[in-house]
Amino acid sequence: MKLNIFTFTLLAAIGGTAFANDTVQFVAQIERMKVASGALNEQGGLISAERIYLNSDSPCGKDTLYVTADSLKLSQENYEKRLREIWKQAKNEYYFRFTATSCESKGSQMASKIEVCNKEICDSKFVIDDSILWVGGNLSQLYLVDRKDAADAAGFFIRLPLTKGKDDKSWKVTGWYLGDNLDLSGEGKTKAFEGYTDTPDFSSQKFIGPFTAWHRTGQKAAQLTYDDNGYRQGEFEAWHKNGKPSQKFSYKNGEPDGKFVEWNDNGTVASESNFKDGEHADGPCNHYGSNGELLREHSYLKGNYDGKYVDYFADGKVQTEKFYKDGHTVGDSKEYYASGQLQSLRHYDQQGKQDGLQEDYLENGTLISKETYQHDRKIAVEKWYQNGKQASSKQYDENGKENGKHQEWAENGQLILEEEYNHGATVLEKKWTQAGSPLSEVIYNKDNDGSVRKRWSEKTGKLISEAHYDSYQPSGLTKKWDEATGKLILETTYKEGFENGLRKQYDPETGELILEKWSAGLSDVNKFVNNQPSIKKYKSGKLIAAGCDAMKLLENPDDVKAQAKKGDAGAQTQLGLYYDGCSEFKQAESWMLKAANQKNSDALAWLSRLYLSGKKDVIAPDLPKFRKYNEQAAEAGDVQAQYRLGVDLLPVEVCQQIMSSCDAQYRSPKSDMNKALLWLDKAAGNEEETGALGILAKIYGYGIGVAQDGEKAMGYYRALEKKYPGSDFVQERIAKLKAHLASSGK
User: Fold this and answer.
1) 3-state class of 248 per DSSP?
2) CA torsion sign, 714 to 715 to 716 to 717?
3) 714/720 Cα distance (integer angstroms)
4) Has this prediction a pTM greater than 0.85?
5) d(Cα 523, Cα 93) in Å, to the nearest integer?
6) Which residues contact 419 (CB under 8 A, 6 or more apart)?
7) How far apart are the C-alpha atoms of 225 and 236, rounded to whole Å?
8) Which of 17, 298, 370, 426 is a plausible cystine mate for 309, CB 3.0–4.6 Å?
9) 618 phi/psi in degrees, rounded to 5
């Protein structure tokens, strides 16, 4: 079982290393590695690097990092060798100590050092005991496994170092039984096997010389001999757990050769046969139970099964019956229940390929499956429930591809799935509930790269959606209906998986149109479409709102337009904002100018902003007009205009002392301190304005451009404090001013 444990410390970078920033160091295991992956260097450029996937997040909150030959300071040849070593160690679940660029560094996080954990550099819980070799298989066939697979695949273990054998060319190998969860406590108690090998670390993975194996009980399990090439040679003997013989035969060059005898655990003969160069000798080979009853009869020819093959139950009834030719099953193959009832019937041609009917039965004789084959190629499949009703039916073409109609039924006999195929290509899919109500339908086009999909409500049985798809994403018209009323509630179009075009929404109760909205890809369209706003809302068939920005819709547009034409300044301003939201800036300007002539503050403020920045390719910036309309907006009571006018009228030397930016481009051609203070004071009197309060407090508190007036300055700060109770920023400004006033004796 893997341990996903991390520990880390931050270290200063060593002078002269590849990284100038601090590094981060942590311990982790490697899940996998990807070669030739893309990474970013410190300058943001794309580089080729290997990507290391960790089994948990690093201290930087990432589960990956990158490595290159340069980052490890290795030649390409040594770098590739090192990567192979690292991956081999990773597969054995070793922990590594990584040194990598810090979490704050630019570019991808790169490893500068990768070290296998040992007691000197890692906590002991991260140190893997590499003196253990994990062994899988069974006592007749052993093989080494990686540590990460040991919990599932290993049954034994070997401890390194191996001890010297009888000469300088052999080492003694002792294998021990492994307990659950890689428990090693059986070492020295439950020996599994003992033999010799020709490498001191068992790297050759072969045995030489005598070999003995034991059951967990301590009873000897097997005894044999290996030659210097690791092949079994000579006599082989095996014993049951009760100590009685199990098998006895001989090996020649690793293959059975000679007489083979197998015994049951009560000492009776289970089977006898002969081998020649690893192959069964021609003739019969029967198997018997502990009471001498025949359990299997079959024959060999040239090392392969040949002729009649029968397995029997203990009472002598046939369990399996088949016929072999040249090692292949041919003709009928039958299996039976213990009751004697036929369980399955298979038919094979002379080449051993399934051919004709393949049938399965319940013990009561009910047919539950019938498959038709032609030379190992499936033609048709039919299945039935235990109650005898059909469960499914499928057909295939001459190439084994699904073809024609495929159907599935519920146990009550109701058709629940129907599919149509044309030589492997899906043509139609339909699904129903067990009560017979439709659930879904998919009709594919001729090329199978597009489809029309319908869905019905399982609850009400009403159609709830119909959509066109291009491959696996919506493309074309989509409709939805209300599950309860069945009325159409949505019509829209898709392109490459995203809404693109006109969306129409309808009231689920009345079916009346309530919304029209144009979209393109991931965004709403914010301009006129066909000389109409891209968003329209309706109620009872009447247009109640329109615009091109969902947050700036014009309510009752027909009424507003009528009022605007009659000269209503408020309606003219609303209409201007409506055209502005739809990017119709010339029309917006026209209506705003009409409202501005009537001193509408919102229109004046909008015009000042328009001429300050302009609209690309439509209306150029015009600073004289900006100043004109900004002043008129201020006079009309617009707070932001008052604030802006006050700032722009400040003498430049005053402005530079109280503000971080005093852009001369927008400033009034002629400064006027008194007017500036007047407009700032007007703005400061508004509940929503706070910037003016801070400016005035600073001007009077520090006597910038005016006579110092600490009491007046504190008044502005107290007003600011009421708007931001408990604000540390305001309190710091007040404390700073008090200290200044105290030092100046004011």
Assistant:
1) strand
2) positive
3) 10
4) no
5) 48
6) 402, 405, 406, 407, 426, 428, 429, 430
7) 8
8) 298
9) -125, -55
Nearest CA to 452 among 470, 437, 433, 431?
470
Cβ within 8 Å of residue 548, ≥6 positions away = 524, 525, 526, 527, 528, 533, 534, 535, 581, 582, 583
- All residues at 6 or more sequence positions from 666 whose CB lies less than 8 Å from its CB, including other chains: 612, 623, 626, 648
Tokens (6 digits) for 520: 């393109």
Query: Coil, strand or helix: which one is 347?
Result: strand
Report phi then psi at 557, rounded to 5: -60, -40
CA distance 3 to 137: 25
CA angle, residues 33, 38, 39, in degrees to nearest 5: 95
Mean pLDDT of 502-516: 96
* Helices 601-613/569-581 angle, 10° precision: 30
Mean pLDDT of 562-574: 96
Question: Do 225 and 233 form a contact (C-beta atoms < 8 A)?
Answer: yes
Residue-level length of the chain: 746
More confident residue, 61 or 429: 429
> Hey, what amino acid is at 604?
L
User: Over the stretch 92-136, which tens digit does the pLDDT of each residue have?
Assistant: 888 999 999 988 887 889 999 999 998 899 988 888 888 899 999
Residue partners of 460: CB distance under 8 A and separation at least 6: 483, 484, 486
Task: Note the pLDDT tens digit of each residue in 204-230.
Answer: 999 999 999 999 999 999 999 999 999
Q: CA 114, CA 96: separation in Å to the nearest integer?
A: 6
Q: Which residues are paired to 177 by β-bridges?
A: 156
The answer for residues whose C-beta is within 8 angstroms of residue 323's C-beta and 6 or more apart is 307, 308, 309, 329, 330, 331, 332, 333
CA distance 376 to 353: 5
Q: What is the pLDDT of residue 446?
A: 81
* DSSP conformational letter for 565: H
User: What tokens were used for 636?
Assistant: 């009309």
Nearest to 161 by CA among 191, 106, 199, 207: 199
User: Which residues, in sequence order, are bridge partners of residue 144?
Assistant: 135
DSSP string, 378-443: EEEEEEE-TTS-EEEEEEB-TTS-B-EEEEEE-TTS-EEEEEEEETTEEEEEEEE-TTS-EEEEEE
Write out the two tokens for 695.
């400016």
Question: Which of 419, 418, 423 has its CA nearest to residue 396?
Answer: 423
Cβ neighbors of 31 (< 8 A, separation 6 or more) are 53, 54, 55
Place of tokens 């192979």: 84
